[in-house]
Amino acid sequence: MPDQSALFGAEASLASGDVDGVFLFILAIAGFFFILTQGLLFYFAIRYRRKKGEEAADTPYITGNQTLEVIWIVIPSLLLVAIFAYGLFVFIKMTTPIPGAAEIQVTASQFQWSFKYQDGRTSVNELRLALGQPVKLIMTSRDVIHSLFIPDYRQKQDLLPGRYTYLWLLPKKTGTFDIYCAEYCGTGHSLMRATLIVMPLVEYDNWVQGERKKLQAGTLSLADRGKALFESSGCLGCHSLDGTPKVGPTLKGVFGRRVQLADGRSVRADEEYLRASIVEPNEDIVKGFQPIMPAYRATLKGDDLAAVIAYLKTLQ
Ligand code: HEC
Ligand SMILES: [Cu+2]
What we know:
The chain is α+β, with helices and mostly antiparallel strands. It has three domains: 4-44 and 64-95; 102-212, Sandwich (Immunoglobulin-like), CATH 2.60.40.420; 217-314, Cytochrome Bc1 Complex, Chain D, domain 2, CATH 1.10.760. The protein contains seven helices and twelve strands. It has helices at 4-8, 14-47, 66-95, 201-216, 222-232, 271-279, 302-314; strands spanning 102-109, 112-117, 122-124, 126-130, 135-141, 146-150, 155-159, 165-169, 175-181, 193-199, 258-260, 266-268. The strands form three sheets. The chain has a five-stranded mixed β-sheet with strand order 3-2-1-5-8, with no helix packed on it. The chain has a five-stranded mixed β-sheet with strand order 4-10-9-6-7. Strand 6 (146-150) and strand 7 form a beta hairpin. Helix 5 (222-232) crosses helix 7 (302-314) and helix 6 (271-279) packs across helix 7. The longest helix is centred in the first third of the chain and has 34 residues, at 14-47. The radius of gyration is 28 Å and the shape is elongated. Copper (II) ion binds at residues 108, 146, 181, 183, 185, 189, 192.
């Protein structure tokens, strides 16, 4: 086997090396026959070219060649069976539950990913895993078909409304990896991205402890809680805090500002406006922007919503 890490980047998960193996196997077979057939094509074209002034020779009358036919039926058939068997082996390995896998619920919606861990932690557009610890993603969609794709893991699975689908992951490398939606799901599809962060086990455990403390801490001010929620809800993917517009308008100084809406009205951004912008963002669209902000109706409720609004008011 050639050094795959040089070709594809180091193996990031249990599945990635296996999938690359199948890919290289098929590529090698296809490459060999491509060079063989195209090489012979060129060779024959030159070798048997009609020379100037030469009469067209009588073509011999060939009715068949049993040996040759048997060879070109048996060899490709065996190769196809080998490709099938190798692929099936890897497919079974990828779809077989890994014992001891921790479960994580994944919900896709236009246009974001939300993750819910067994201990009650939640996050939006960020999935954190520990190195070498297997997980089982139990996935569904709230609206249309999405597809969770982790290119470095070579793993992809559709998420459908009203049904659970699964993906088993076993991280083999620490670092930050991309998660994409691989099923065109609407205007904001290209922005439907999440980050996978793989940490060493000890670091991961520390992080989990910290998150749990934060969850329990009632001592945090409303705005500080809002800041944490804001950061874990993926808002920063589309909104800046420094005055520059991104995919969405900057949230610097958003509270109290006069907002031009796409339908021509202009409104003052008060608490009710902020609430509506977050919970049902597609009711009032800010002029000059696309209606692609996901509705946080189900993810930010009650106190959480109040906390985020309190935080937005501090961004002056
Ligand atoms: C996928 C990109 C995206 C994400 C994620 C996102 N937004 Fe937005 N947001 C937008 C866009 C685009 C607009 C402007 C269009 C509209 O009004 O819907 C907007 C508008 C807003 C507005 C109104 C701004 C103004 O100038 O009037 C607020 C407030 C807001 N978003 C808050 C949030 C908060 C809080 C979060 C996280 C909980 C968030 N957004 C996440 C894209 C996004
Ligand atoms: Cu999608």
